[in-house]
Design a protein that fits this description.
There is one protein chain. The chain has 267 residues and is α/β, with parallel strands linked by helices. Helices cover 36% and strands 17% of the residues. It has 10 helices and 8 strands. It has helices spanning 33-42, 48-55, 59-67, 71-74, 86-95, 149-156, 178-188, 204-211, 223-238, 256-266, and strands spanning 2-5, 8-13, 79-83, 98-107, 128-136, 160-162, 194-197, 215-218. It is elongated and about 80 Å long. The protein binds S-adenosylmethionine. The site of S-adenosylmethionine has 14 residues, from loops.
Length: 267
């Protein structure tokens, strides 16, 4: 079982104290926190407006210096932190007899659009996702012929996979690249195997499976994505030139191994 997932970089957590980033490079007023504290000590009864008038700045500056630069927008918002998800996934897997065997890292494009806050903080822009590879107890085959020598050297042995993100997410908001699915399928399965993706989305895994002469089972909860995946799968199947022998894939109803597998899943 291979799971592709990223840590949650802005996980809201009500239980932790507020951590304020004081962005001094954005400061327009020369008034410092120390100056406000000194004025407060000298005139303990002054409110924010009076302190602002005394120091010759806006009351917002007083607020910012005392409470951090996010006080207007961020006062009532929960603090965010990074949430590591690998440990949770590892625990779930262990509880059903799957053991963490390997981990790879997908280095994708930097997600600038999702990381607007980085200009105002010291946080990095997100540009990796993890691939957790789990094994069930028993034997497994190491079949060197699954990849060419070149593929082994380029990515088969490598922990970091440099694959550009899907630039056009116009029909589905979170597609992963075809090459990501393709590498996983080639490395961990043989021709004729069944590849199951329970979060099929636009059908990337199914298309890659077909192109690598594997069967697929896809599960997707959104009707519109089921339709999209069906379309993409149909186009991939139409390109029969992709197969160098009689296609191994058949529809679910035609293939007894798949029928049996689906029945097992349903049970
Ligand atoms: C990150 S997307 C996967 C995208 C896919 N890898 C691709 O390249 O198009 C996750 C998909 O899982 C679907 N999904 C979420 N929860 C689900 C569930 N409980 N059962 C089936 N599908 C689910 C979502 O609708 C979404 O299309």
């Amino acid at each position: 079982m291979v799971i592709n997932i990223a840590d949650i970089i802005a996980f809201k957590d009500e239980t932790i104290p507020k951590i304020q980033g004081l962005n001094i490079s954005n400061r327009k007023s020369p008034v410092t926190k120390e100056m406000v504290l000194e004025a407060k000590a000298e005139f303990p009864s002054y409110n924010r407006d009076q302190l602002a008038a005394y120091l010759g700045c806006s009351e917002q500056t007083i607020d910012r210096r005392l409470n951090g630069n996010n006080i207007r927008g961020g006062k009532h918002q929960a603090q965010t932190r990074i949430k590591l998800v690998g440990g949770q996934i590892e625990a779930y897997a262990y509880s059903c007899g799957l053991y963490l065997y390997d981990k790879r890292i997908w280095k994708k494009d930097p997600a600038w659009a999702n990381s607007r806050w980085t200009t105002n903080t010291l946080k990095a822009v997100s540009e990796t996702e993890d691939l957790y590879i789990f094994w069930k107890v028993g034997e497994y085959e190491v079949n060197r012929s699954r990849l060419t020598e070149h593929e082994w050297k380029e990515w088969g042995y490598r922990q970091v996979w440099d694959i550009p993100s899907v630039r056009k997410n116009d029909d589905h908001e979170a597609k992963f690249p075809h090459e990501l699915a393709q590498r996983i399928i080639k490395l961990y399965s043989d021709r004729g195997d069944i590849v199951l993706d329970p979060f099929l989305g636009s059908g990337t895994t199914a298309v890659a499976a077909l192109q690598e002469s594997r069967h697929y089972i896809g599960i997707e909860k959104e009707e519109k994505y089921v339709a999209l995946a069906r379309n993409n799968i149909k186009s991939a199947m139409a390109q029969t030139s992709l197969f160098d022998e009689t296609p191994l894939f058949k529809t679910i109803h035609q293939h007894s191994a798949i029928r049996q597998f689906v029945a097992t899943l349903q049970n």
